[in-house]
């Protein structure tokens, strides 16, 4: 195993947990939901099934990309997979690029499928990988879908990161030729409308907007630096509330995942109201797993499932489609953003 790369994976997890805060800056606190005082609905009528990468999901949130590539993260992947299997939610792994480069690390990711043989498992590769590597990543996990993450900001800060970002051609080939659906995702800086224009042209269908406000890879890589200071990039990007507002005109073109600092069931509801089809959660689930182990994570997921349905009940929404019609009040800051973003 390549010790330098494995150590980096452990550093990412350690620093992400160190930087975790109970309250995130996801922008969703600037959105208020008007109450429905006469819901005329029973909890038992709620159907919050949705789709993820084109497949029906019974639960509208999942364990998003985090770990793999070292002995420590192998153990975490095993625990995440056990929780996903027990609760019936989907799970994405962390980047498999390290296992493509060093095949002996593959078991760090394969353990996810071993522990969750029938669940929906999403593989993960960085942009810059070719179709051959994408097929390897899918085969490694028997993955149901593959995330391709766009992380130019993270890479440019990393001393060992990429410096060449000619990505579109290979991403297009993967989208159009891979045997499983491809989700294009950011890593916490948000996907802009200009990027969506390009992704539409290369036939992308599934987008994880991954907004600013949760795990911050600019801050993580800055903490790993021992020389140049890139802290000026710590607050770069769009939060998930801004991403969802900015993507409104593309709802007929893509299926959106909302992620980036999701902390509560109400956060999930707000994302669904704003047009997301599903919600990915990373930092909160990692924090819970490290603090309360698998049993604590399973308990939290089950609580979230119950509370999302409960909130839908009091809003009078029997399914996710009806959430789209819930009246929302935006802060002046978000209203200003919404007005300005229409110019892009």
Could you walk me through the main structural features you see in this protein, from its secondary elements to its overall organization?
Belongs to the IPP isomerase type 2 family. Substrate binds at residues 8-9, 154. With 344 residues, this protein is an alpha/beta fold. The protein is globular, with a radius of gyration of 19 Å. It is 45% helix and 13% strand. It has helices at residues 3-19, 71-87, 97-101, 107-115, 131-141, 152-157, 168-177, 193-201, 217-224, 240-246, 265-273, 283-315, 320-323, 332-341; strands at residues 31-33, 50-52, 55-57, 61-63, 91-92, 121-126, 145-150, 182-186, 206-208, 255-259, 278-281, 328-330. An eight-stranded parallel β-sheet has the order 4-11-10-9-8-7-6-5. Strands 1-12 form a two-stranded antiparallel sheet. The protein has 14 helices and twelve strands. Helix 1 (3-19) crosses helix 9 (217-224) and helix 11 crosses helix 12. The chain has a single domain, classed as TIM Barrel (Alpha-Beta Barrel). The N and C termini lie far apart (46 Å).
